[in-house]
## 1
Amino acid sequence: MTDQPTPLFHLAFPVSNLEETLTFYRDVLGCDTGRSSDHWIDFDFWGHQVVAHLSPEEAGKSSMNDVDGHAVPAKHFGLILEWEQWEELAERLENEGIDFIIEPYVRFEGKPGEQATMFFKDPSGNALEFKAFRNKDQIFAT
């Protein structure tokens, strides 16, 4: 590894309704907004740039895979947060009445890669996963 700063990621994803997307990412997840048009919105996703593009025909489509006894959307995105951030977000989402695909829990408990995780969908049906590791050295553990 080098001493280079960690790059930021950019992700563009399809949505079916920009107004609902704006409300969800800004008001529920707490993301600031950047540039926008009638067809897209930039969000500050914990320092990363994610862009919601109006494309109703593509939004929310994904198959499922079995992971640790749960049906996990094959297509999803999210973040690895600090443990305390993850707990705060899980509590906020529960208070907002978010309908979880997979409720917040700790998976692979006692095994390599033990992590807290939760899955839910945005209003366009795009799946998001937020997770946390008590030990970040376990992120790529096998």
Note: The beta strands are 10-15, 32-36, 40-45, 48-54, 64-67, 70-73, 76-81, 100-107, 115-121, 127-132.
## 2
Amino acid sequence: MKRNFLMGAAALAGLMTLSACGGGNNAPAAEETSAAPAVEETAAPAAAAPDAAAAGATMEFASMTTDAAAGEKVFALCRSCHVLEEGVNRVGPSLHNIVGRPSGSVEGYSYSDANKNSGVTWTTDVLFEYLEDPKGFMPGTKMAFPGIKDAQDRANLVAYLESQSS
């Protein structure tokens, strides 16, 4: 129960930050929002990242210990629109090397103006926040996915995406 209270408080702080900014089309940077969870990486170095999911790499989002292997299962929700292969776009852009990439930057994909002009860099903190409510985070995005409300599933998915990025 305490965990739910803390997560709710963090979400409320994030909403207050967004409303203070006028709720415009520009999403806040990860370091500007108090709702973005702290990340402590305990995963293998990036060079070993592809094997990290199989080994059950972990990282912590606030009080959550994540599991990249569990995140691979959550990624099934994304597969109808996204793949991890470089240069392969579907309904959504390729998620190859998503962590650390600027929003709206995959060659050959037709992004919404909101996404292209957001100035967002997809850090683990930003992905964690975005995946909860994509349209709430980035009004005007074409992504019709309603989001992943369960914070643990979201954290596991972000850990998986990071394990697949080089």
Note: The longest strand covers residues 39-41.
